Amino acid sequence: MITFDLETTSTDIQTARIVEICVTKTGHEPKTYRFNPGVPIPKEASEVHGITFEMIANEPTFKQRAKSLYEYIKCEDILGFNSNAYDVPLLYNEFARAGIIWDYSQNRFFDAGNLFKIFEPRTLEAAYKFYCDKELVGAHGAEPDAKATLEVFEAQLQKYG
Q: The whole model's pTM is what?
């Protein structure tokens, strides 16, 4: 299994470019590569991942390493966090820009972020317990739900500002 993560120029899977990738094959040391994306890295993206264009200006492009990276992952199971919606499609697009059509039918994809969302409750009851440390009595009644929502929001404002 390959576990991987990307750092990119933006959140748009159609236009974003990869600036850093880490791929870790189970039982092996991680391989981390940085790429010159060929486009400026917006300040907002650099503030998230800490990578500026100046830091990677002399790195190879993704296209220069695409073939070896593709060979490394092409028939492996692939694991990421929120990767099925973002990292995998973006990686597919980068391979395509490099002239490689990724036949991902040979891969199985596991998304730990999706599993977290599936198996850990994302309900008002769970939010009320998390933020207010209270049990929601009368859940799915309009009045208790409205009151709990206000308490959750107030707790979020205190927690996050």
A: 0.81
